[in-house]
Amino acid sequence: PSPRCSKAPAGPTPEPVALLAAVPVKPFGVAKARLSGHLSPNQRARLGKAIAARTTLLCRQAGADVVVVTGDDGVAEWAGALGFAVLAEGPVGSLDGAAQTAAATAAARGQGWVIVHADLPLATAVDLRSVFRAATRGAVVVPSHNGGTNLLAGSDPTFPFTFGAGSFHRHLAAEPRAVVLAHPRLAIDLDTPRDLAHARKAAGGSWLGPFLPAD
């Protein structure tokens, strides 16, 4: 059966924004490796699929033109079943490579781009819409709670992406005119057991319950 979170919350469809929202998605069988001491491989795969579905559907509800970027055939099939276009992540095979592919594709279409981490458990369509609207006016960086980058928007097809630890400051240095949107719900991604525990207890995190072991 489809995961409970595979449908975004109901609401009015907003006017579309001239923006390509790219959601890089890893193979579900290897996702969430840092949760391996807390969740089984099957639980991690179910959680990875559920949160990626939720995030991509919320991006669409927020009005962006959404694509899933992946190098995995299983993820590509999953994305197609949800109605999303798929971009091959390219030969680099990393988040930076996926972002480069998305930026180049957006430029070829005459669009700005926004790279959206797939694992944003507390995000809402309203949160994403605020980022997307800001991105139509210029570059935007949304930091994670631990100094990374959870969303990054711009228009330069050759932007030097350097995702990972400390990437917020590197991305801001690469585009010092970028607007910084520090948002508590968009700052949380699921990298560690602590992230998972925080998201589960936070407002808006109750949907995670069926995908996690009982306390």
Overall average pLDDT: 87
Spatial strand sequence of the major β-sheet: 3-2-1-4-6-5-7
Biggest sheet record = 7 strands, mixed
Percent in strands: 15-25%
Derived from helix and strand composition plus strand pairing, the structural class reads alpha/beta
The succession of helices and strands, N to C, reads: EHEHEHEHEEHEH
Characterize the overall form.
Answer: globular
Query: Using only CA atoms, what is the Rg?
Result: 16 Å
The share of residues in helices is 25-40%
Unreliable runs: 1-12
Distance between the termini: 24 Å
- Annotation, overall tally of beta strands: 7
| Discrete helix count | 6
Q: What's the multimeric state?
A: single chain
Can you describe what's shown?
Residues 1-12 have low confidence and may be disordered. This protein is α/β, with parallel strands linked by helices and 215 residues long. The relative contact order is 0.17. The radius of gyration is 16 Å and the shape is globular. It contains six helices and seven strands, in the order E-H-E-H-E-H-E-H-E-E-H-E-H. It is 34% helix and 15% strand.
Summarize the structure.
It contains six helices and seven strands. It has helices at residues 41-61, 73-81, 95-109, 125-135, 167-174, 193-201; strands at 19-24, 65-70, 85-88, 112-116, 140-143, 149-154, 179-180.
